[in-house]
Amino acid sequence: MKRSPRGYFSDTRKRFHATFYGQNFIDKIKLLFSAVLLSIPNSFVEKARVLEHAREYANKVAANVKIRVGETVFHVVDFESVTILSDSFEPWMWKYLQVSDDGTFVDVGAHVGKYTVQVAKLHPKSMVIALEPNPENFRALEKNVKENRLSNVKLYNLAAWNRKCILKLYTGDKGGHHSVKREFGRGYDIVQATTLDDIVREACVSRVDVIKVDVEGAEAEVVEGALEIIRRHHPKLVIEIFDSPEKILKLLPPEYSCEKVADAYYLFYANASSVRYNSPVL
Questions:
Q1: Domain ranges of the chain
Q2: What is the DSSP letter of 278?
Q3: Selection from 23, 31, 17 nearest residue 79 by Cα
Q4: CA dihedral 162, 163, 168, 169 (to 10 degrees)
Q5: Closest Cα partner for 132 from 148, 116, 121?
Q6: Phi, psi at residue 81, to the nearest 5°?
Q7: What is the per-residue pLDDT across 56-110, written as a single tens digit (0 to 9) for each?
Q8: Where are the alpha helices (DSSP H) in 19-113?
Q9: Is 278's pLDDT higher than 50?
């Protein structure tokens, strides 16, 4: 996809800003080197065949660094991870991740733990349940929970689905793009899948406050496997949806309504007095 000059310079500025998140000088230098390679215009890369693997190499370099966001340290899997973990990425999300002391936050598609780790730190008396099926992402997620000395997190190297089964998780071009729904021609991992109902039942939690779902197209299957939780606990659901939210809303109990909260993200919430579907509100 061809970018406008304005879009190119905006993306480049964000990449170079991200280099300051490096935990130490060496990490910053590695991120700077990666940012330079990733900022080479596509047209130039296509013409100069020697640079055709520049982006792949840039992400390999970035995968060996640690970054610091506020008081939290993260291991990353590629340069995109740095952007995702930064304060400027999805700042609106925190409004919807409020968890009570005896409550639970369920992070479906946890990636390397931006929300898992920070919610667990902000709410040390709560429980965080995180699911991430991709092996590389999951290893970084485990490191990040350990690095930040968190004891209120349960991690599952599983895909959330509507039944127990085996799935093909297709490898995306970036760590946040892997999907069981879309094939990218980059291979796949065989992953175990189960339902959120089974996970939460096993965890023996007293209540579920919020479920965040970012699963690159498998939202309906995740919700189908969580209907017991939803009927019992009436959690808020923050779901990334690339299709219509109506498909999800039809699966939920009748007391649920929804509103659009950001590009591709919808909040589903229980309110007995609300209309079945509200017009999206930004």
A1: 5-79, 91-270
A2: P
A3: 31
A4: 50
A5: 116
A6: -60, -40
A7: 888 899 998 999 999 999 999 999 999 999 998 999 999 999 999 889 999 999 9
A8: 25-38, 42-47, 54-62, 79-85
A9: no
